[in-house]
Amino acid sequence: MAAVLAATCACVWWALPAAAGMGERGFTALERAQLEAGELVQRPAERRQGSLELLGGSSWQVIDAAPETVWQALLDTPHYPRMMPQVLEARLVRDDTTKRTVFMRQGASGFMEKHYYLDVRIDEARRDITFSIDQQRPHDLRAAYGFYTVRPYKGRRTLLAYGVMADIGDGLLVGLVRDEVHEWMLKTPWMIKQFVEHTGRHIYK
Fold first, then answer.
1. Are 60 and 116 in contact (CB under 8 A)?
2. Residue 201 CB: number of other CB atoms within 10 A?
3. Which residues 6+ apart lie within 8 Å of 84 measured at CB?
4. Exposed (0-12), middle (13-18) or buried (19+): which is 58, by Cβ within 10 Å?
């Protein structure tokens, strides 16, 4: 378990700088056009890491809101069910400014529902967040880790980068919904955009 956790943390810190440095020159012409059109840019990935079968990838979204507004939303744990796919419950368990523990209940209610705690690291100055499964607490996922980065974009907009890799388990039911789960995993920046620009636009000042 210690070896798996170490490898997980290494992947988190490797992925974060790569995404944070994703400027205009890091995207293809098609991806730049998609961003300007308000579309979600996705790069799905699957990876075997020891005994783990990981799926996820990275995605990017331009949000019509200032970076400080998007940053506030990312730290607003109680509203996660309104801005993240399949989140049924999110609860802040511990908050030490730069470190948080967040309880998550995710999936279709009563079907493929997963409970876990995230170890969240916050870099306020850079507006970077990394997260991974808290292995010391109960968890239904074998592994999960990822990041958010918030960067200024043209005209007081925000470029939100997101990356996640997770092992959601195996079995017949998991196999049947694996592709669907992989698809919605990367939609988080798009859902945050919908929330910040519409139903949540008056929450953050």
1. no
2. 12
3. 90, 188, 191, 192
4. buried
Query: 3-state class of 50 per DSSP?
Result: coil
pLDDT per position as a tens digit, 45-78? 988 888 888 889 999 999 999 999 999 999 999 9
Q: Which residues touch 162 (CB under 8 Å, ≥6 apart)?
A: 19, 58, 59, 60, 61, 146, 147, 148, 186, 188, 189
Topology classification of domain 2-199: Alpha-D-Glucose-1,6-Bisphosphate; Chain A, domain 4 (3.30.530)
Q: Give the C-alpha separation, 32 to 35, whole Å.
A: 5
DSSP string, 75-95: T-GGGHHHHSTTEEEEEEEEE
pLDDT per residue as tens digits for the range 21-33: 455 568 999 999 9
